[in-house]
Amino acid sequence: MSSRGLLGSDEPLVRRYDLALVDLDGVAYRGHDPIDGAAEGLAGARAAGMRLVFVTNNASREPEAVAEQLSGLDIPTHAGEVMTAAQAAAELLATRVPTGATVLVVGGAGLHTAVAAKGYRIVASADDGPVAVVQGFAPEVGWTQLAEAAYAVRAGAWHVASNLDLSLPTARGFAPGNGALVGAVRAATGVEPSSAGKPSPTMYRLAVDRAGATRPLVVGDRLDTDLAGARAGDIPGLHVLTGVSTARDAVLAVPGERPHYLAGDLRALLVPHPEPVRDEEWWSCRGAAARVVSGALELRGTAHDPVDLVRAACAAAWDAVDRGEVVDPSTVPELPR
């Protein structure tokens, strides 16, 4: 998967790919609320034979709790279809820390369960001499736990973060994520942590191996985690415009965070995806077109699907950047989805 630009598919994505690696927050739900089209799109994907694994940077909850929430939102799910950053963090620990070693856990029930399942002795104080600190988000994490983590890391413990997301979407807006809390420990110690979560492709690879898939597709809302992880893992990525990263963000995306497909929501799994084509200096996608002239993005046409304008704009902007031009961000408007 070497393409730096958008891909096209003459057939629905559910036929081209055998596994969807689906992010949760901002894709399947937002806080406790469902996202329009999510249940419909995922039900259609299952009916077409596509397997699903929900891959989340959230390490606070156990897979069973995640599956229960999804099922309550009309997305029937079992725990084996959930891959959390807590599980990935425990796998990362196992690459350097022997079974039975002492590990300080800063996080929620999901992280405690995943670390315990790998055979580690969990402690809550740096005074217990942990050889590693593993840190994940949980609403109850506060100064006391962060201080213990800092004491242990300063004493030489290996610092492993479940993920480095600076924010997370909630029903009320964006709140501090695990990356913000990890930043407090980093600031206190000067030690850069290892990370198991996206944008590292570790979770994607674990999920693909678990499912036995050969043609996976990443589905996410964040360019800097979900789609960057897809690029890092050489897996096609679908950016749905229901969460953190906007259509404008996609147009201005750096090469390592570019999606391969764009869509308004998860119903896009059930339809073909047009590929933008170049016609002289314009890039067109059905009724929409875009070009870059002297660093300025120009748009024209009327698209049946608003995302076609985004696709054309991405193609034009990315092509210009790849040819060494600089696209002026002030010329890129907020685009519809």
Name the descriptors:
19 strands; 337 residues; alpha/beta; six-stranded parallel β-sheet; Rossmann fold
CATH level-3 fold name of the largest domain = Rossmann fold
Rg, rounded, reads 21 Å
CATH homologous superfamily grouping of the largest domain:
HAD superfamily/HAD-like
The first-level CATH class name of the largest domain: Alpha Beta
Pfam family, one: GNAT_like
Domain GCN5-related N-acetyltransferase-like: 285-329
InterPro entries: GNAT-like, HAD-like_sf, HAD-SF_hydro_IIA, HAD_sf
Organism: Cellulomonas dongxiuzhuiae
Short description:
This protein is an alpha/beta fold. The chain has 11 helices and 19 strands.
Explained architecture:
InterPro entries: GNAT-like, HAD-like_sf, HAD-SF_hydro_IIA, HAD_sf. GO terms for molecular function: hydrolase activity. Residues 285-329 form the GCN5-related N-acetyltransferase-like domain. This is HAD-IIA family hydrolase. Keywords: Hydrolase. This protein has 337 residues and is α/β, with parallel strands linked by helices. It has three domains: 13-57 and 199-270, Rossmann fold (3-Layer(aba) Sandwich), CATH 3.40.50; 86-195, HAD superfamily/HAD-like (Rossmann fold); 277-331, no CATH class. 32% of the residues lie in helices and 22% in strands. The chain is built from eleven helices and 19 strands. The protein has helices spanning 13-16, 38-47, 63-72, 85-93, 109-117, 143-154, 178-189, 202-211, 223-232, 247-251, 306-322; strands at residues 19-22, 29-30, 33-34, 51-56, 82-84, 102-106, 121-123, 132-135, 158-161, 167-170, 173-176, 194-195, 216-220, 237-240, 261-263, 277-279, 282-285, 288-293, 296-301. It has a six-stranded parallel beta sheet, sandwiched between helices. Strands 7-6-8-9-12 form a five-stranded parallel beta sheet, with helices on both faces. Helix 4 (85-93) runs parallel beside helix 5. The chain is globular, with a radius of gyration of 21 Å. The model has no long low-confidence stretch (mean pLDDT 94).
